[in-house]
């Protein structure tokens, strides 16, 4: 669509502007406002601008101009007044009547082209402003970027932007690196934009923002925008606040992996994580240790004092394990009264022995003044990687056999698996 409707009764004006504009625009001529209006109604989408002889428009009392502005179909088509005389100050009243500009037949051709182009783009901007205003009524944030990844508008300004407290601050013309407080999220956004602009394939992703102590999860849905020639001209995007959904999802994932009684990992989560870690450390030749803990005579506690008391014991032991372990260690409950600890990056086996000693001392201290003090103690079997095995199943078996040896020979002790036989 590159048509211009030229309405002029005076032959000299028609001839001059036809010669000037026909190399660039598809001109449609009308010699009266009535004829021009009929053509406009027949072909409402064909014209990017309407040029009207100023004297003709003034004769009708600018009736055509009023009609153009009142009809939503034509309100975005710019009107430009034209004349074959140099403009007088009073001629500029056409601007008040809704005309965008006044061109004379004496203007250089490049200037005429430029001013018509400016009028068309200005109306496009007006259309964009109207769209932006409508979108601001939505609770979600909608934004538009140009082909360089710079913001054209955003219907909402979210809290993690660098606005510097300026009430007149605008996002227009800025990049993500300029506006975002979180540099990593800014780089992620710009990388996603580059891929869309290059491939024409949209993308959806979720980011986490932490600003002023507030945690937010935002879903970004981005799609390419095309111009009339099918070329990508920008990116349109929608931001949804999915914080509640993501927090709930994380909580459900955590519950699926957590033993509710002790707060440690459950059996499946523990085994999955330790298997992965052992595999990684096997490749890196890092030394690590696997400890299996068993609560001695726990069945007697349940039988004598009840399951509620037994749960209290397990919860307390879980608390002790969490306090004794390093942040890099993995700890989980793998059975009714059995626990597993995997120690990463240990210097030697003595690190594991020291942890076993602390666990037994703290458990004994926790229940020293308790009516259960004679029943509660820990038996611990320890296997070291790579001495006792290079995979999870081998290490677990070595630690479990060592634990069995401890329980068979008096309980309430720890033992490290010898390099050859755990029962030696």
Verbal overview:
The chain is of the alpha/beta class and 424 residues long. It folds into 3 domains: 3-133, 3-Layer(aba) Sandwich (Rossmann fold); 136-246, PAS domain (Beta-Lactamase), CATH 3.30.450; 258-416, Reverse transcriptase/Diguanylate cyclase domain (Alpha-Beta Plaits, 2-Layer Sandwich). The protein has 14 helices and 15 strands. Strands 2-1-3-4-5 form a 5-stranded parallel sheet, sandwiched between helices. Helix 11 (298-305) crosses helix 12 (307-324). The longest helix is centred in the N-terminal third of the chain and has 27 residues, at 109-135. The termini are far apart. The mean pLDDT is 87.
How many strand units? 15
Total domain count: 3
Strand order of the largest sheet: 2-1-3-4-5
The general outline is rod-shaped
For the record, what CATH class of the largest domain applies?
Alpha Beta
Secondary-structure-derived class: alpha/beta
Main sheet characteristics: 5 strands, parallel
CATH architectural group of the largest domain: 2-Layer Sandwich
Give the overall average pLDDT.
Answer: 87
- Give the CATH topology of the largest domain: Alpha-Beta Plaits
CATH homologous superfamily of the largest domain?
Reverse transcriptase/Diguanylate cyclase domain
Helix content: 40-55%
Radius of gyration: 39 Å
Order of helices and strands: EHEHEHHEHEHEEHHEEEHHEHHEEHEHE
Low-confidence stretches: none
Query: How far from one another are the termini?
Result: 90 Å
Residues in β-strands, percent: 15-25%
Helices, by number, come to: 14
